[in-house]
Amino acid sequence: MRKATLFAGLVAGFSTFAFNAAQAVEIEYWQYVYETRVKAMDQLIAEFQKANPDITVKQVTFPYADYQTRVIAANMSGKGPDVMQLFYGWLDKFTTGGILQPLPKDTFPHDKIESEFFPIVSAMKRGDDYYGLPTAVRSLALFYNKKLFTEAGLDPNNPPKTLDEFVAAAQKIAKHDASGNITVEGSTLDMGGQDHQWWREVLIRQFGGAPYTDGDSKVAYDSAAGLKALNFYTSLQLEKKIGQAGFMDEGQAAFRGGKAGMTIDGTFRLGSFKTIKDFEWGVTELPANAEGVRSNYASYFANGISAKTTGPKLEAAKKFLTYISSPEAMDIWLKTVGELPARRSAALTEANLKDPIYGPFLKGLDYAHTTMFKDEAAQRQNAIDMVNRILLEKQPVEASLKQAAEAEQEIIDAAKP
Amino acid sequence: MAMNEQQGAAQGRPGGAFGDRFSMQTKRLLWVWGFLALPILFYAVIRFYPTAQAFYLSFTNWDLLRPAKLVGFANYIKLFKDPQFWKVFKNTFTYLIVGTPISLTLAFAIAYFLDRVRFMHNFIRALYFLPFLTTAAAMAWVWRWFYQPPPIGVINDILGMVGIPQQPFIRSTDQALFSVMVTSIWAGLGFQIIIFMAGLRAIPSTFYEAARIDGLGEFAILHKITLPLLKPTTVFLVVFSSIGFLRIFDQVYNMTTNDPGGPLGSTKPLVLMIYQTAFNTYAMGYAAAQTVVLFTILLIVSLLQLFILREKK
Questions:
Q1: Contact A243/A170 with Cβ under 8 angstroms?
Q2: How far apart are the first and last CA of chain A?
Q3: Which neighbouring-strand residues pair with A59?
Q4: Is A388 close to B264, i.e. CB distance below 8 A?
Q5: Does A391 fall in a domain?
Q6: pLDDT band at residue A13, thresholds of 50, 70 and 90?
Q7: Comparing C-alpha atoms, which of A348, A308, A343 is closest to residue A328?
Q8: Does residue A298 surpass a pLDDT of 80?
Q9: Which among B61, B62, B64, B147 is the top mutation candidate for probing chain A, defined by the most A β-carbons within 10 Å of its own β-carbon?
Q10: Do the domain assignments include residue B61?
């Protein structure tokens, strides 16, 4: 009896082996560790393998702080992933390093990409080629604390729609003690958080300018619009006193702690804010200017195919990438991770648009801009320093802006391959 | 199996084939070097090879992505022209020049008096040593919150109660470096106190008795006996603490994560600049040049201190 079972097992094993030998492919997928992302990817891989039994996908993860270095180091040693996740801002580095291959046009036709995805997908294009496709995208919105709104006599169901309303509401909410120290912020001011994106892609445009020109390779904010935008931003602390940089360490901490009426943050903060128990909060679109001009900053992690992947592995990688950027995958991602689908059809469904939380973020996607960072960390630092010079060292706004523009141009030029 | 054992026994026995060829002296040397070979090999591979590699890399433009190309002294020239480097250089030496004397004076004063305390001596000593056992990152975060403006910053709350206006601490370009330095001194204090106390205990009490019989005052005893005899301990601690301040990183990085080394680079030490150049910008060649400069500084400072504080005979 035992022999018979063993024999049967052997036969079965051999036959599947023989059957699969020709096609069985294992590909490796890399992303950074973030619990819900890993979970979502596990689910996507399971679904994918069900539909493609001849392909196995192995998910490998690294801590975020290490991730980029790992990919680059693995590429050097010739052992990288077949499909990998990358931040859109890393693309220049990855293409000059020859880490990625252009997406094959037969599987990923350009006209389809351009018509089906949100326009920010263009950040994955270099020359005539796309190098990756996002599953999900992130945008900014204004979070507001309904409890503080009510306490300040504001309507918690009617959050500010314009910059003027935003300032007025913030001034009503902000509280100071006898010696002038702020105790409750009207709105958080945190350049190290998302405010530098708000200033760069939203405020400058709302004051009539543009942050950069020439594919974001020329700094253009040393202009009247840039000056107005920076004046507006720094006056929030210096004149209107609605908030203070560094209050409760970080803007998001102040909001979480119920000590800030409003904060500008991204979809990625939803998970953390959903655990708030002490008060109800809402989300609304970033305030428009007086003429109704709106803007937003969107970013995303995309998935690309390694330059070293060829033959049957490449075929498998193409199939896998197609699946993880399909509407079905995006839906799973939205439900598990809470990030917005990158395809219009999957994102702009009636249910999503009506959702009080996802709605404002999705509306923002339609008019969002994506900064083509050349050296994201350095450019962000430059914006932080620009505001700090004004807030801490009392440098005139105009001088600080000029200095920042020159320094950023140097950073951009130095990062050129 | 049995064969092997027999052979092993035969070889190990004194006067065997192995023993006949070498003298006792040579055999001992062989043993010693046999044991030393392992750590030497380890150091060669783990320490010396990477050090040599860093020197080589500092003359290249390696960026992890493309093969390294030799660029001569370009990295060093760029470094000496970089205003950020000089700021960081000044910061690093401020940590060293202000931090080391303060921490050593403080540690000595505490050790000196703690040595005389009998009441709860061990408990107090343990309290002082506790911060040394704590993870630098955890400690830095706690201090980061201490330094916050009211209502959450404990220090500012206390200042407010006493009627002193609130201080910006790590949000100010003037105070941030010293705020970070205080936590670093506090963290290293326990270790220095223990070492100083061990040094104090090692001084024979007969010296003190003789001095007292001769009618020397407390200050004279401290000046003429305690301090000179404590010199080896002091030299060790000065070198140790200087290297610690020159390599300061954890405290700064953790207390300023949203603006590392900020505000406006006012707390940034050389090590943090190296880290950012290497792992944010991936300019490995440039980072290697900075590392070589740090290495040279460490070497010069250590040699200088050993020279100044050397035993005069």
A1: yes
A2: 69
A3: A29
A4: yes
A5: yes
A6: very low
A7: A343
A8: yes
A9: B64
A10: no
Average pLDDT rounded to a whole number, residues A283-307? 94
With a CB cutoff of 8 Å and minimum separation 6, the contacts of A165 are A287
> What distance in Å separates the CA atoms of residue A52 and residue B233, rounded to the nearest whole number?
70
For residue A383, give its domain range.
140-297+374-414
Give the closest of A72, A259, A392 to B65, CB-based.
Answer: A72
**DSSP, res A370:** -
**With 0-12 CB in 10 A as exposed, 13-18 as middle and 19+ as buried, what is A184?**
buried
Query: What is the structure's pLDDT at A17?
Result: 45
ipTM over 0.85 threshold: no
Q: Do A97 and B65 touch (CB under 8 A)?
A: yes
One domain, residues A146 and A132? no
* Phi and psi, residue A304, nearest 5°: -130, 170
Total domains, chain B: 1
Which of B151, B259, B264 has its CB closest to that of A183?
A: B151
**Residue B127 is assigned to a structural domain of this protein:** yes
| Banded pLDDT at A12 (limits 50, 70, 90) | very low
Q: How far is A220 from chain B (nearest CA, A)?
A: 23
| B66/A392 CB distance under 8 A | no
Handedness of CA A118, A120, A121, A127 (dihedral sign): positive
| Structural domain total, chain A | 2
- Residue A121 and residue A134: Cα distance in Å, rounded? 7
pLDDT digits (tens, 9 = 90+) for A120-175: 899 999 989 999 999 999 999 999 999 999 999 999 999 999 999 999 999 999 99
Rg (CA), chain B: 26
A288 and A174 together in one domain: yes
CATH number for the domain spanning A220: value is: 3.40.190.10
Spatial separation of the C-alpha atoms in residues A134 and A306, rounded to whole Å: 15
**Contacts from A273-282 at CB under 8 Å and sequence distance 24+?**
A273/A143, A278/A147, A279/A145, A279/A146, A279/A147, A279/A148, A280/A145, A280/A146, A280/A147, A280/A156, A281/A143, A281/A144, A281/A145, A281/A146, A281/A255, A282/A143, A282/A144, A282/A146, A282/A156, A282/A157, A282/A159, A282/A356
Structural domain contains residue B199? yes
Looking at the structure, tell me whether residues A123 and A182 fall in a common domain. no
- The angle formed by the CA atoms of residues A383, A386 and A387, to the nearest 5 degrees, is 95
In a domain, B153, yes or no: yes
pLDDT of residue A417: 63
Q: Does residue A214 lie within any of the structural domains?
A: yes
Q: What is the mean pLDDT of chain A?
A: 90
- The answer, yes or no, to whether residue A256 has pLDDT greater than 60, is yes
Answer yes or no: do A97 and B265 touch at CB < 8 A: no
Same domain, A307 and A288: no
CATH code assigned at B203: 1.10.3720.10
Structural domain span for residue B137 = 75-308
Report the sign of the C-alpha dihedral through residues A398, A399, A405, A408, in that order. negative
Q: What is the pLDDT of residues A64-113, one digit of tens each?
A: 888 988 898 888 888 889 999 999 988 988 888 889 999 999 999 999 99
In the predicted model, what is the mean pLDDT of chain B? 87
Residue A155 lies in a domain: yes
Same domain, A239 and A315: no
Best of A179, A184, A249 to mutate (most B CBs within 10 Å, chain B): A249
Mean pLDDT by 10 residues, chain B (313 residues): 43 53 86 89 89 93 84 93 93 94 95 88 87 88 89 86 86 92 92 93 90 87 89 90 91 89 91 91 91 92 82 62
Q: Is B164 on the interface with A (CB under 8 A)?
A: no
Residue labelled with tokens 């030490």:
B269
Mutate to test the interface with B, among A185, A189, A375, A392 (most CBs of B within 10 A): A392
What pLDDT, on a 0 to 100 scale, did the predictor assign at position A27?
Answer: 94
Q: What pLDDT shows up at residue B23?
A: 85
Q: Are residues A314 and A383 in the same domain?
A: no
